[in-house]
Recover the amino acids of this structure.
């Protein structure tokens, strides 16, 4: 192999390399998309859990919206108060205010108060159990208790209590809505923490039929609605709170509930063993 | 006879029909209360047209059809309407139902009615009469029969197939119907052929029911082109697409209906019911049903008023045995377990099987060993192994791309799986989840 051959090869390859380098450099200049460097910085400050609770397609999307001024840092439900301030300070914007929301369970029928009419045997998930004759619980609207919500929660905000009901820890709950989707009985709702008057039941049966399956069911007696007609209405055999008028509600609204289905929640639900109220003796 | 009448794949579960195969059909006494859910058929639920306190005679309409794919519901016994409200449905949920307290000393004689001569009616009138009688497919799916009798113009029908396969283990409902009422079936068939304007009918019966084949052959009407076909015993022969494949050799394309290959399939019991409608003038208010399994003391074939509660039905068969464990509506392969003994039997309930502790011993599920038995058993040629993997990771959209829609949950894959993977349950979950997604979107 002569020197010339080596030289030619090096020249050709070097030339080709140079041409492509020039092309790449040109295209880079021509088609460059400028991206605000703050987006990356803000994304670093965000939790990175991509939970979607803010309504954006993930933390990156939220960072873009933040830099674009479309949302306020407080819209991220996962960040703590100090972290919100950090983000606000970095961007020089107001932190804003967001109502803290939490997931609430509309069932209080743990194994201590609700009757299981048939045993379910099979895949150990709520979804699977609900598809086989409703899961076997006497109240077919009630919690199946196989912890699909606990499994799906990314923030360890849900644990199962000894009676098979999920407890949501309000401080950890980010209202991402994963549990709402996971529950085959649609028992979770996201509501602002200041909404404290909650009907913990979805059973549409009335009177003794409802109480036969669960001691803490709403039996549609209508006493709560009679006491506070502006806040509570009876709809299809169930007491429904009108949350637009929640400011008018007081803990007094729950006093006459004979079963204890309607509760005034401070902090977490299902912390204590739910107790049916003493029946009034005639 | 040339070709063996069969379809590919499928399984051979134990037949277990001896308990009731030779037990003659008897009528059960009227219960004290009947419950008539307004949703007993595939399609839109009917609308209640009675109120608490109303008196109804046997055969009176209590629910009106709501739309084309819907049928009316009729009182199966005379009595007073107690309530129109929520009641346990065999599907496990509470659903709207009409509850009737049966009059204790009533002779249960229906109102006298004018029975039209069916030969004098036009096709449209016949179909309307079938609809008004609340007739649905009695093979299990409870699809309104009048819809199947009025196919669209662009799908010409050349053959009626009568499904007497009864491939589900335990059940002998169709078997006894064919043995005891073969002539009624032929009369119903005649009316059906007239409705559809079809000259050719074929009756498919699995060869494990020789007495039924003989009874049907002995009574064949000579003026009609009706033939009886002896089928190889295999599950799920009674699924209409398999039956068409076995008898006619035609394959129903994915996503299409039997009428697209010129065939309509009706169950034996549905055909017999149509004859009854035009002979007695009574709507579909009772049906023949097998109550069987080792968990019931006196396995029987019964004529049961629609809306009888499971509890009353079991009592009519001597009650539960001591080791009864699970009550299944339909057969053990495709039936549904019921959670409440208050749930009533429906028009489409082919039988009630009570299983014992020994029958339902829970089995541990092991990882998939890729043996391929599920592939060899799937009658619609899906790949249950891949579908199962996708279902476990909740990739439901991809399952749809793997033709989950063709799966009719026959249970063959789960039956053959040596690792006891509950494949049919996984597929049912996927179907439920997909339906939820679609309604949400």
């Amino acid at each position: 192999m002569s020197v010339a051959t080596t030289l030619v090869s090096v020249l050709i390859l070097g030339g080709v390399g140079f041409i492509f380098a020039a092309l790449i450099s040109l295209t880079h200049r021509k088609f460059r998309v400028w991206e605000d460097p703050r987006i990356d910085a803000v994304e670093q400050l965000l939790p990175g859990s991509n939970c979607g609770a803010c309504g954006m397609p993930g933390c990156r999307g939220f960072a873009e919206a933040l830099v674009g001024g479309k949302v306020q840092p407080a819209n991220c439900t996962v960040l703590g108060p100090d972290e919100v301030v950090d983000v606000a300070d970095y961007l020089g914007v107001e932190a804003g205010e967001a109502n803290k929301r939490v997931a609430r369970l509309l069932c209080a029928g743990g194994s201590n108060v609700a009757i299981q009419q048939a045993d379910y045997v099979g895949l150990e998930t709520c979804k699977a159990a609900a598809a086989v004759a409703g899961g076997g619980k006497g109240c077919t609207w009630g919690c199946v208790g196989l912890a699909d919500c606990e499994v799906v929660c990314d923030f360890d905000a849900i644990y199962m209590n000894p009676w098979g009901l999920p407890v949501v820890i309000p401080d950890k709950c980010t209202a991402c809505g994963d549990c709402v989707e996971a529950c085959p009985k649609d028992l979770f709702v996201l509501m602002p923490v200041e909404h404290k008057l909650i009907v913990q039941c979805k059973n549409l049966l009335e009177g003794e039929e409802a109480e036969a399956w669960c001691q803490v069911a709403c039996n549609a007696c209508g006493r709560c609605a009679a006491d506070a007609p502006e806040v509570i209405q009876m709809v299809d055999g169930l007491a429904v709170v009108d949350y637009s008028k929640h400011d008018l509600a007081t803990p007094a609204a729950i006093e006459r509930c004979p079963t204890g289905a309607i509760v005034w929640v401070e902090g977490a639900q299902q912390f204590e063993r739910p107790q049916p109220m003493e029946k009034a003796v005639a | 006879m040339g070709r063996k009448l069969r379809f590919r794949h499928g399984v051979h579960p134990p037949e277990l029909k001896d308990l009731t195969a030779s037990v003659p059909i008897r009528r059960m006494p009227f219960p004290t209360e009947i419950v008539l859910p307004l949703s007993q058929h595939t399609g839109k639920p009917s609308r209640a047209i009675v109120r608490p306190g109303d008196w109804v005679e046997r055969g009176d309409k209590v629910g009106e059809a709501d739309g084309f794919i819907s049928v009316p519901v009729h009182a199966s016994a005379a009595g007073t309407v107690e309530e129109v409200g929520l009641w346990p449905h065999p599907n496990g949920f509470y659903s709207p139902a009409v509850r009737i307290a049966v009059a204790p000393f009533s002779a249960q004689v229906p109102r006298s009615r004018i029975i039209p001569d069916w030969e004098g009616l036009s096709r449209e009138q016949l179909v309307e009469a079938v609809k008004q009688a609340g007739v649905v497919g009695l093979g299990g799916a409870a699809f309104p029969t009048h819809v199947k009798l009025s196919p669209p113009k662009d799908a010409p029908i050349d053959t009626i197939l009568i499904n007497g396969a009864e491939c589900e283990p335990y059940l002998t409902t169709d078997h006894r119907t064919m043995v005891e009422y073969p002539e009624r079936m032929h009369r119903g068939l005649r009316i059906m052929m007239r409705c559809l304007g079809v000259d050719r009918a074929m009756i498919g019966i699995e060869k494990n029911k020789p007495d039924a084949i003989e009874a049907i052959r002995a009574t064949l009407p000579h003026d009609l082109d009706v033939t009886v076909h002896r089928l190889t015993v295999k599950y799920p022969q009674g699924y209409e697409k398999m039956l068409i494949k076995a008898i006619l050799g035609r394959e129903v394309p994915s996503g299409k209906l039997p009428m697209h290959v010129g065939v309509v399939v009706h169950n034996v019991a549905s055909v017999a019911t149509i004859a009854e409608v035009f002979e007695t003038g009574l709507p579909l208010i009772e049906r023949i049903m097998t109550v069987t399994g080792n968990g019931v003391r006196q396995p029987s074939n019964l004529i049961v008023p629609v809306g009888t509660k499971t509890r009353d039905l079991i009592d009519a068969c001597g009650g539960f045995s001591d080791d009864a464990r699970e009550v299944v509506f339909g057969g053990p392969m495709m039936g549904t377990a019921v959670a409440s003994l208050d749930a009533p039997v429906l028009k489409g309930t082919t039988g009630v099987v009570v299983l014992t502790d020994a029958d339902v011993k829970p089995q541990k599920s092991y990882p998939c060993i890729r043996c391929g038995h599920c592939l060899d058993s799937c009658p619609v040629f899906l790949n249950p192994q891949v579908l199962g993997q996708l279902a476990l990771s909740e990739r439901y959209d991809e399952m749809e791309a793997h033709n989950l829609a063709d799966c009719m949950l026959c249970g063959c894959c789960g039956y053959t799986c040596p690792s006891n993977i509950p494949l049919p349950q996984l597929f049912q979950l996927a179907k439920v989840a997909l339906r939820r997604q679609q309604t949400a979107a």
Observations:
- Residues 175 and 212 of chain B are 6 Å apart (CA to CA).
- The radius of gyration of chain B is 21 Å.
- The mean pLDDT of chain B is 92.
